[in-house]
């Protein structure tokens, strides 16, 4: 089914860790249905931005609006329930649950109350679980790892674990998906499949924000690119324009 992508609008976002100003008044926006990449050297604040947008950190100053609603200061659970899903650099799955069960857990962000009430009415629960299982298998198939459905998540390679996280986010009804370095450690063949997968998720209508070092991937899939350098926006615009900017390339060389 189509996904009604949510827009993300960040303005004046700052975050300090002790003496380190990880983000210094950052503006960033991802229109509904876009694929916006955040690139930049290590330590430039990319993951911090994702953590603030998804409610894992609170900020010192600024605004984060998702679907037009201010979410800065809301809990990660509340933000997830609004339709924001994410993946992590180091995947966060329940290692000793199967891939399928991990994806099914995604349903909790979407309909926690429903599931609980269902579990209390047993005859209904069996049907409900069967329905959720089928849906979860559909998402695993969509991301290309249906053959791993019954494997413990901890026993699949990291690249596949990130795909399972994408399936879990989709199961949770995510309309804005934040991907933190999904291409890290992937083979060329896996990279190509990731590129196709992100394209298909966008075709469904979801908004994607991707932090990624793999600039070829970014050039192929991103509608917008923002370059962070030491917590500030160094450049932003269309991939072709940004990647031709000499200052941007110097920031990378200086890494
Ligand atoms: P990037 O994702 O671009 O590599 P990060 O957002 O991870 O950069 O980090 C930006 C800066 O903030 C770095 O100097 C990093 O050391 C610091 N930082 C990030 N998270 C924390 C944290 N939880 N505690 C202390 N410092 C942090």
From TrEMBL:
Predominant localisation class: membrane
Occurrences of domain ABC transporter (ranges): 8-255
Cellular localisation: Cell membrane
Entry keywords, A to Z: ATP-binding, Cell membrane, Membrane, Nucleotide-binding, Transmembrane, Transmembrane helix
GO molecular function: ATP binding
Domain of life assignment: Bacteria
Function, as annotated: Involved in beta-(1-->2)glucan export. Transmembrane domains (TMD) form a pore in the inner membrane and the ATP-binding domain (NBD) is responsible for energy generation.
UniProt protein name: Amino acid/amide ABC transporter membrane protein 2, HAAT family /amino acid/amide ABC transporter ATP-binding protein 1, HAAT family
Organism whose genome encodes this protein: Bradyrhizobium ottawaense
Full-sequence portion shown in this chain: 333 to 587 of 596
């Amino acid at each position: 089914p189509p996904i009604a992508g949510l827009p993300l609008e960040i303005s004046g976002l700052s975050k300090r860790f002790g003496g380190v100003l990880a983000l210094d008044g950052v503006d960033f926006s991802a229109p509904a249905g876009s694929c916006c990449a955040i690139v930049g050297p290590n330590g430039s604040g990319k993951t911090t931005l994702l953590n603030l947008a998804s409610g894992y950190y609170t900020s010192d100053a600024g605004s984060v609006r998702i679907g037009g609603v201010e979410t800065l200061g809301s809990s990660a659970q509340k933000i997830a329930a609004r339709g924001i899903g994410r993946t992590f650099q180091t995947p966060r799955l329940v290692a000793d649950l199967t891939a399928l069960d991990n994806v099914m857990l995604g349903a909790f962000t979407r309909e926690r109350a429903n599931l609980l009430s269902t579990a209390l009415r047993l005859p209904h629960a069996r049907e409900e679980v069967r329905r959720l299982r089928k849906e979860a298998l559909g998402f695993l198939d969509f991301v290309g790892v249906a053959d791993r459905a019954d494997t413990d998540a901890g026993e699949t390679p990291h690249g596949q674990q990130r795909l399972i996280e994408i399936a879990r986010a989709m199961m949770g009804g995510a309309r804005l998906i934040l991907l933190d370095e999904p291409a890290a450690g992937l083979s060329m063949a896996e990279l190509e499949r990731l590129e196709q997968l992100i394209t298909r998720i966008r075709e469904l209508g979801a908004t994607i924000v991707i932090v990624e070092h793999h600039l070829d991937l970014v050039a192929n899939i991103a509608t917008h690119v923002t370059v962070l350098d030491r917590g500030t926006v160094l450049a932003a615009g269309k991939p072709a324009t940004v990647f031709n900017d000499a200052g941007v390339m110097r920031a990378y060389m200086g890494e």
